[in-house]
Structures are given as structure tokens and as C-alpha cells.
Amino acid sequence: MSNATPNSARPLGLGIKRGLKHRCPNCGEGELFSSYLKVQPECAACGHDLSQYRADDGPAYLTILLVGHLLIAPAFFFPFMWEVTPWIIVPASLSILTAVVLLLLPRIKGGFLGLLWANRVTKDQLA
Ligand SMILES: [Zn+2]
After folding, report:
1. pLDDT at 123
2. Which of 72, 75, 60, 59 has the alpha carbon at shortest distance from 115?
């Protein structure tokens, strides 16, 4: 309750930072997710209605965009990617990429929800 942001001020950086840490963007204390990607209906700490923010495909799109541009594309500049047999490089690359995506996706979803919170983008506006 003490860290709850006043309704008038919703700094973008603060919302994203709290979301990246899996915390309620409104207070920074309550858990944002009840499971891997499932958002709590409301914050246990401040009671903020978290179900009003719908991330939809945004976090998945952003994750693919980041992984594709920061990992996959640069990987092709390393000669071993072309020299090692595909029977080794493909499963190894896919394992690493899967692990990175699974680690990034909930963090990016949290940050995305923080972005929605800061800009007051609720599901009522999207209908
Ligand atoms: Zn909260």
C-alpha cells in the first residue's frame, strides 16, 4: 500500500521496471503473475485491478523481435555456424533459443503490462 503510485502519476520507466521484475506496476510489491504467464486478477498488495490490462500477442511479438535481431541474426556472422554439421548446430541452437525465449517471455510480458499501466491502456479501450 505504501508504494502505490497515485492515480495521476504513472511514470513509464517505473511501470516497465516493476513489470520486468514480475511486480505489480502500480505498487511494485504484489506478484504480477499467478503462474508462468497468467496475470493475477488483482494485486494482493494494493488491490489494483490487473485484469484490465490485456497484453495479447504484444510480448510474444517483442520477444521474437528481440531474440531474432539480437541472437539469431548475429549468430550467422560466426564461422562455426556454417562449419559445424547441421545435425549438431540446429538442435544446439534451438535448445539455446528455447531457453532464452522461455526466460525472456514472462519478463517482457511484465514490462509490457507496465507499459500498458503507464499509458492507461485498458481492455475497455480496446473493445
Ligand atoms: Zn499492487
Report:
1. 87
2. 59
- Distance between Cα 41 and ligand 1 center (Å): 11
Residues 108, 112, 115, 117, Cα dihedral to 10°? -120
Would you give the DSSP letter of residue 3?
A: T
The per-residue DSSP string of 5-56 comes to: PPTT---HHHHHHHHHTTB-TTTS-SBSBSSSSPBPSB-TTT--BGGG---T
What is the 30 CA–ligand 1 centroid distance (Å)?
A: 5
CA of 44 to the centre of ligand 1 (A): 7
Residue appearing with cell numbers 513489470: 19
Cell 505504501 locates to: 2
Residue range 32-65, pLDDT digits in tens: 999 999 999 999 999 999 999 999 999 999 999 9
